[in-house]
Design goal:
64% of the residues lie in helices and 0% in strands. It is mainly α. The protein has one domain.
Length: 173
Amino acid sequence: MTDATGEVTRLLEAISAGDASAVDELLPRVYEELRRLARARVAGERDAHEHQPTSLVHEAYLRLVGDQQARFENRAHFFGAAGEAMRRVLVDRARERGALKRGGDQRRVTLDDRAAGVTPPSDDLLAVDDALRKLEEKDAAMALVVKLRYFAGLTVEETDDDRIHHYEVVANP
């Protein structure tokens, strides 16, 4: 275990114990790795220009540490939850764009989407979210492995059968 990894785990334990100052210390230690995860998630999106890794990191981080119930066993558990939080942020944004595209509560006017500056929701992201929900109904452990590998960037070794139960993702980051 490196000093940085140990320090992250120590800060996560302090946060779990209710140390509010540890929340402020954690972000600088994990920020670059969270940005790497965010860049990887955004790069695969058709409308990547709409998503900024920085805003994705900040929104996901606030969801994670803003939840007073969130407890993380270790660094890998935290990054697994961070990946899930990023996925949820992107799905929420795609759904919002879809609602805006359909007009929400606005009066309908016929316009070309490009002229109106509206980008359609990422059908790919929504399809992935739908597929993950279906997989979760059939095999929750396998869905968790997919989330941890794809959205959190964990390795095969970090998501093996013996370790997967340690990564239970926070219910609503």
